[in-house]
Amino acid sequence: MGIAILVLMAVGVVLMLTRVLPTAFALVFLAIGIALLAGAPLDGTDDSILTGVLQTGSAALASTMLAVLLGSWLGTLMDETGIAGTLVRKIVEFGGERPSIVALGVFAVSILCGSITGSAPAAMLAGVVGIPAMIAVGVRPVAAGGTVLMGISAGSPLELPVWQFLSDALGAPVADVKAIMIKLFPMALVVGIAYVLVRTRRGARHAWAVKLERPKARVRRGDAPWYALITPLVPIVLALGLAVPIVPSLLAGVVYALVTTTKWGELNGRALRSLYKAFQVAAPPIALFVAIGMLLAAVKLPGAKNALTPIVSAISPSGGLWFVVVFVVLVPLCLFRGPLNVFGLGAGVAGVLVTGGIYPLPAVVGLMASYNQVFSVSDPTSTQTVWAAQYAGVRPERAMVSTLPYTWVVALGGMVLTAVSYL
Amino acid sequence: MTDVDLAVRLLRTTPTHENRPESQLREWAGKALAYGDELAGIEDDGEIRVVDREGGAGSRELLLAEHHRGTVTVYSDSLRRVEELARAKGWPVTREALRTAAVAHELAHHLLDVRELNRRLGHTALRFGPVRVRGHVAGAEEIAAHRFAHRRSGLAVSPLLITTALAGGN
Fold first, then answer.
1. What is the top-level taxon of the source organism (chain B) (predicted)?
2. In a domain, A19, yes or no
3. CB contact under 8 A, B18 and A220
C-alpha cells in the first residue's frame, strides 16, 4: 500500500513538472488518491474523504491564508503608496556611481519586501524599479535579477506568513518556527551579500541596448515620506522583538503604512481598494494552501500513516551527519516543483516525517525551511524567479545557474544548524 | 525632434525619474549632452579592445554593443537589424558607420567620469541645512555616450534618434 502511495506521489510530481495539471489541482487529486489507497471511507467519520480530507483539510491552513492575505495587503500598499519605489530611488541616487553599492541597497530593500510578502509580488515590489535601475548603473542583467531573488530569500526567514505556514502545516508552535528562522536569517544574509559582491566585483558593464517591447509606462507615484519608509520593519519588530502574534503584527504594518502616506479623507478609499487588490495578489498562494491542507490531511489518515511510516523510516537517514549529507545531496529535488518543495508535495513528505515520528518536529521544520531557501530563489518554475529573470531580460534557467551555488550553501548551513540543534 | 527632446524621453523612461518635472529632465539632458560634446573634443589615445560577435539581437532586446573592463563587444547581427531600420526610414547610414558609432558609444563609457558628470548635473539627493548630498542621475551617462558617439563617428543620424526609433518611439 505504501509503495502504491509513493508511486501515486511520483505520478503527481510528473503531472506538475509537465504542467499537465497546475500544482494546486494536482495536490487535490493526490490527496483524494492517497485517501482512497489508504482505505478511507467516503463519508461518515472524521477520517473520511469528504469530511476529513476535503472539508477539514481545505481549511487546515486558514491562519496561513489570512497571514498571506495581510502580507499581500501590506505589499500592495507599499507599492501603491510609493514606499518600495522611494526606497530604491533613494538608493540609486546615493550609490549610483558604484554598482555594487546600488546592488547591495536593492538587496536590502528586497529583504524588506521578502519579509512582508512572498512570491512574484515581493519580486515586483523591489524589482520593478530596482532591476532596471541596477542595469542602468552597470550591473549585469542576470545579477540584477539574482540580487532581487537573493534578497527576497534572505527576507524569507523573517516572513511572518511563512512562519504561520510552517506552524500550521507541521503542527509546530510559532515560537519554535521563529527560533529556527532567526538562526537561518544570518546565513541567508551573509551568503546573499557574498552573491551581490561576487557578481558585481568584476566592474560595471555598460551597453547600448534597446528594449524592443515598449515597457508598460510605470505609474507615476510621488515619494513616500521618510517616516513611511520604515513600514516593512513594523511587523518584524512587533513579531520578533515584542512577541506580538502574526496577524496583529501585519495589521499594525498596514495601519502604519496607511496613516503615514494617506490623507485623512482618503484613508477609507485607499484601505478598501488596496485590500481588494490584495485578494487578487493572494489568490494563487491561497489556492495552493487549500490544496496543501487537503494533502496534509490525507497523509495523516491512519491508513496512509501506517503504510508510509515504515517505508519512509527505512529510507530516512539516521544520525546528524547522514541527515546533513543525504538531505543536502537531495536539494535539487526541491526544484522544478519536485517532491521536496514544501509549497507542494514536500508538505506531504514533511507531514509523513512528522506523523511517523521519524525526526523531532523542530528538525522537520529546519529541514523544510532550508529547502525553502533554495527553491524560493533558484527554482526556475517559481513565479518570483520567472518574473525577476524575464524582467531582467534573461531566461529563468540562467537565474537558477547563477544563484543555486549560493542557495545550496544556505541550505547546507540550515541542515547543519538543524542537525546540531535537534538531532 | 531635437536631441534634447529625445534625451528627455530617454530619462523619462529610466527608472527613478518617472515623477520628475519636465524642466528638471530638460536641464539634465542639456548638461549631459554638453558633457558628451566636451568629452568628444578631448584628445585621447582611443585605445580599446574591440571584439565582433553575433548574438545581440533577441526578440525582446537589441544589444548593439557593450563595454566591460576595457573591452568592447560589438554585435554584428544587431547592426544588420539597425541597418535595415535605417534603410526603411531612408537614413543615409551604413553598417560600417553604425559600427564606428557603437564602438565610440562604448569608448565614451570607458572615458567618462561619472562623478564629474554628476557634479555638473548638480542633483541634490539630501539636504541637511547648508549640507548637500549630491545624487546620481541614472541615464545621464547614456545621453553623454550617445552624443559622444555621434560626434566621434560622424553618423548622419543621432544615436538617440536611432535608439528611440528601435524602441518603437517614432
1. Bacteria
2. yes
3. yes
Cell of A105: 541597497
Determine the structural domain holding residue A185 and report its residue range.
1-204+221-422
Find the radius of gyration of the CA atoms of chain A: 21
Please report residues of A whose CB lies closer than 8 A to that of B62: 209-210, 212
* Overall domain count for chain A: 1
Q: Which of A208, A218, A226, A395 has the highest number of chain B CBs within 10 A, making it the mutation to test binding with B?
A: A208
- Could you report the per-residue pLDDT of A169-209, keeping only the tens digit for each? 888 999 999 999 999 999 999 999 999 999 988 777 888 88
Chain-wide mean pLDDT for chain A? Answer: 88
Q: Which residue in A181, A178, A131 sits closest to A151, CA to CA?
A: A131
Q: Which residues of B touch A206 (CB under 8 A)?
A: 66-68, 106, 109, 141, 145
A206/B109 Cβ within 8 A: yes
Q: Is residue B46 part of a domain?
A: yes
Q: Does B156 touch chain A (CB under 8 A)?
A: no
Which regions of chain B does DSSP assign to beta strands (E)? 49-53, 61-68, 71-75, 124-128, 131-134
Residue B127 gets which letter from DSSP? E
Helix (H) or strand (E) holding A134: helix A119-136
Q: Is residue A210 part of a domain?
A: no
What's this model's pTM, rounded to 2 decimal places? 0.85
Q: Which of B102, B103, B140 is nearest to B118 (CA)?
A: B140
Of A92, A210, A212, the CB nearest to B16: A92
- Asked whether residue B88 is domain-assigned, the answer is yes
For residue A218, is pLDDT > 60?
Answer: no
Q: Is residue A212 part of a domain?
A: no
Task: Please answer whether residues A132 and A28 qualify as being in contact, where contact means their C-beta atoms are separated by less than 8 angstroms.
Answer: no
pLDDT in tens, A362-397: 999 999 999 999 988 898 878 889 889 988 888 888
Average pLDDT over residues B139-144: 93
Say whether pLDDT at A97 is over 90.
Answer: no
Element (H, E) at A205: strand A205-211
Shortest distance between the Cα of B114 and any Cα of chain A, in A, equals 6
Do B168 and A214 lie within an 8 Å CB cutoff?
yes
Return the pLDDT at A215.
56
- Predicted local distance difference test score (pLDDT) of residue B29: 96
The Cα–Cα gap between A400 and A407 comes to 10
Is residue B165 in a domain? no
Q: Which residue has the cell 553598417?
A: B95
Number of independent structural domains in chain B: 1
Strand partners, B128: B131
Question: Quick check: A212 and B62 in contact, CB under 8 A?
Answer: yes
Identify the domain containing residue B9 by its residue range.
3-160
d(CA A22, CA A24): 6
| Residue at A148 is within a domain | yes
Q: What strand order describes the sheet that includes A205-211?
A: A205-211, B61-68, B71-75, B49-53
Q: Is residue B169 part of a domain?
A: no
Chain mean position to CA B97 = 16
Query: Is the separation of the CB atoms in A97 and A190 below 8 Å?
Result: no
Could you report the per-residue pLDDT of B36-95, keeping only the tens digit for each?
999 998 887 767 889 999 988 887 788 999 988 888 999 999 999 889 888 988 988 888
